[in-house]
Amino acid sequence: MARIADEEVGRLKREVPLEALVAASGVELKKAGADLVGCCPFHDDREPSLVVSPAKNLWHCLGACQAGGSTIDWVMRSQGVSFRHAVELLRAGQGGSPVTGPSPARSTENILAYCA
Ligand SMILES: [Zn+2]
Questions:
Q1: What's the pTM value of the predicted model, to 2 decimals?
Q2: Ligand 1: distance of its center to the CA of 50 in Å?
Q3: Domain segments of the chain: what residues?
Q4: CA of 86 relative to ligand 1 center, distance in Å
Q5: Cα dihedral 31, 36, 42, 46 in deg (nearest 10)
Q6: Fold (CATH) for 6-91
């Protein structure tokens, strides 16, 4: 398998709107100054601790996860896929899908209701 070119990785990180990916994952984002905040789908979030910075196209969980990163990190984490698979999904315009990763503490049907 050919190596994924650094330029392509950089392009996907810059040009795929993270905000849209996060929204497509089922996270409702609200404006907070220059950033957007929402409920982190990766831990049992009681208050919005997921911060998305559209200007930088980066996200960060200020809660239990202490995780964050680029569009690629988001797809890897939200869909439970490898770096290569995440790049392929983003390249195909399929990066934004509901969170499918394992979530032992929570069933999927209340994913939008747990954090008002
Ligand atoms: Zn989190």
A1: 0.84
A2: 6
A3: 6-91
A4: 19
A5: -40
A6: DNA Primase; Chain A (3.90.580)
